[in-house]
Specification:
The chain is mainly beta. 10% of the residues lie in helices and 45% in strands. The chain has one helix at residues 2-20, and strands at residues 24-27, 30-32, 37-45, 51-59, 65-66, 72-73, 81-86, 92-97, 107-115, 121-134, 139-141, 145-151, 172-174, 179-180, 186-190, 193-197. The strands form 3 sheets. Strands 2, 4, 7, 8, 10, 11 and 12 form a 7-stranded mixed sheet that branches. Strands 1, 3, 5, 6 and 9 form a 5-stranded antiparallel sheet that branches. The radius of gyration is 31 Å and the shape is elongated. It starts with a helix and ends with a strand.
Length: 198
Amino acid sequence: MNRRIRIFATIALAIVASQAVAQVISIAPVEDEPGAQTSLTISLSDAGTNITALQFNLSLPNGITLDKENITKEAAASEHDLAVRTLEGGDYLFVLYNMDKKLITQGTLLRLPITLPSMEGKLTGKLTGFCTANTDAMSKKCADALYSITVKKSKPSSIRTIVDKNATSAPIFNLSGQHLTKPQRGINIIKGKKVIVK
């Protein structure tokens, strides 16, 4: 009887443990104009309570460049060291770690500055090899993540300035000879001619 209880307890603990370490890493979709400088935002949800380090590989779509020197660590990983290495084939390996076993929390991990290509289109990239390590140095492999980047010219949303093609840069005067910044109602003198403004 005790053996059965131990088996059921072990199975129950395994189920609870597998649910507790279900991390989700994601990259927010990006939409911007051709050639724009923007960033990929990488976030972690359901981080559990014991995650001290993580790593992943990132593939960027063709034509997108990463500015490795200006990557920023955000609140969820602010106390962690970051190592970035370029792999064969152009992918990048990212490792976040802390030798004092500080915890990585749920939220935004990194902002990766990128430059978009000059051609319009919808691009997709992939984050693979996502693994975490906890305070007991136990590692867990997690699911990969896809992300999208849309490169397109934006449509104007408003009229910023109105230019009157008939406007003149010639000085404007009233009948008393006073200089005016713009024509006023009545008789104005523009380019030496009398002009009636109603």
